[in-house]
TrEMBL record:
Lineage per the UniProt record: Eukaryota, Metazoa, Chordata, Craniata, Vertebrata
Function: Calcium-regulated, actin-modulating protein that binds to the plus (or barbed) ends of actin monomers or filaments, preventing monomer exchange (end-blocking or capping). It can promote the assembly of monomers into filaments (nucleation) as well as sever filaments already formed. Plays a role in ciliogenesis.
Pfam families in the cross-refs: Gelsolin (PF00626)
One cellular-component annotation, GO: cytoskeleton
Domain Gelsolin-like: 73-156, 195-268, 314-387, 453-534, 575-624
Organism of derivation: Sus scrofa (Pig)
Name of the protein described by the UniProt record: Gelsolin
Keyword tags: Actin capping, Actin-binding, Calcium, Cilium biogenesis/degradation, Cytoplasm, Cytoskeleton, Metal-binding, Phosphoprotein, Repeat, Signal
Organism superkingdom: Eukaryota
Cellular location(s): Cytoplasm, Cytoskeleton
Amino acid sequence: MAPHRSALLGALVLALCALSPPARAATASRGAPQARAPQGRVSPMRPSTMVVEHPEFLKAGKEPGLQIWRVEKFDLVPVPPNLYGDFFTGDAYVILKTVQLRNGNLQYDLHYWLGNECSQDESGAAAIFTVQLDDYLNGRAVQHREVQGFESATFLGYFKSGLKYKKGGVASGFKHVVPNEVAVQRLFQVKGRRVVRATEVPVSWESFNRGDCFILDLGNDIYQWCGSNSNRYERLKATQVSKGIRDNERSGRAHVHVSEEDAEPAGMLQVLGPKPTLPEGTEDTVKEDAANRKLAKLYKVSNGAGTMTVSLVADENPFAQGALKSEDCFILDHGKDGKIFVWKGKQANTEERKAALKTASDFISKMNYPKQTQVSVLPEGGETPLFKQFFKNWRDPDQVDGPGLSYLSSHIANVERVPFDAATLHTSTAMAAQHGMDDDGTGQKQIWRIEGSNKVPVDPATYGQFYGGDSYIILYNYRHGGRQGQIIYNWQGAQSTQDEVAASAILTAQLDEELGGTPVQSRVVQGKEPAHLMSLFGGKPMIIYRGGTSREGGQTAPASTRLFQVRASSSGATRAVEVIPKAGALNSNDAFVLKTPSAAYLWVGTGASEAEKTGAQELLRVLRAQPVQVAEGSEPGRSGGQRDPLFSGNAALRFLSVMCVNHSGLDENEGCGQ
């Protein structure tokens, strides 16, 4: 008998001993094979955990893709790739999905699928193989239990042509094969205000109302429909769910169609039929949110006394993330919506971690939930968006909001100043810390602008130009010490709408999730840009226009007279900010660019640095202007058509006022105005 079979037989015997007598009797009556039990070898790398390594494990998760095995007489047998999607109803399967993240790490989703006619032995063997394979992958996989006819959306997304259920199985020799194509067709209702939930409802106009948002998922086409009375929270949630289905379940190949009430696309009407008069819908009140909070409960799992016990931690969500302790395992009960999550803390004992699936199954039985209730087992650090949505302000490791805290010099120790030198930045932690620089800004970047509830790529030719009426997401990739690093900046313009600011936060979190939760996130509001963000544009200044937008078809015409303040950080990175064009804006420490309809001026303050002068010249190139350069204290003026001598005292103020009057026709006392 092969060693991997005897090991599994022992594990299976223990599992069967835990079954109720009727269950054991049923198993015996099925005539389950008794002699061919799979075995494995104990991993020499981890002898204390007695990890059983089936020969198939050695091939698992080595590269991105899908791998499927069928349980055949207590053994794992690979399914040929050309038969992926075909499942025999009398069998159990183990499915591994491996995805390579942008940082090079591998991410695993591990499923075991149970046919309606599979035996208890086959079901138990599939569960044991799943636990063993997860252990072989160092506990990094997210585990899922799938039941025929009630598969998770994640699972269905692996099979672009759908699933085929075939009668029979190993015991029947693959006879009586009857294909049964399963098409993706489902409808979600998105409802709530502060606590928004997406719930699957019958695919019918009878499920619709004017007060909520709905998502009709047809596989290749996803229709997002919002009623005329839906609120912005529901609209944002609908966008998040729609894009999640497209990107995570369909690998980005489905099309999301966004529509409003009374503007339904033909594809939607083809499935639902003509739209009847819809009810108003219930108001999203505090009572509705309270009902959403009751949908899930959080339990702690413990075997401290030698027996597995489950105790209630919180009976309302959103939960506090701090309730999850690394030393324990937890169950998030969303069973009323057909979903159970088991969260495994990194420091939980081996028995608790390995018993996660069995604990979930026992919990389902105890709560009298249907046997097809879906189960996801999540390792700490591998939480999914569906799990995170039940927690208030979920924060991933290393997540950073904003440019950091500021401290008064009187409250900190005297620190020796380190001059900035890009050549030695990576070898001087003190320099990097003092100047707020993660690297020298020469890495790869992608920039998106928020349009409504979508992110739209920005033309690389305009990288570095930001509009106060927009919000943006900047993904920056760099290498440091041989390691890949990533930063996601979420830049929010001062005049960006509330909805777009909220959408930028959601889309930033979604991008972080797509990248495996490894990037550092930084929220940046206009006017608070950190030095590192300013350094990303190839030695050119980060240009920030006061308002307006750069979106296609919606560009705002610039003001006839514009004033830009150019200021450098201690690292030499520059920012050119458009300010109100009035004389009082001038500052001796900076350089300024004044552009009028007929001329441009570069005003250099006495304290302006070389970096600021250079940044101003780069700005003028972007504005396509040839300037007249004026140094502070040498401003020319005009009076009665004659050139005046140099002014004293407020010469700079006088200069700006005169230039505005000469080129815009405004009254001199108004400055440049708007």
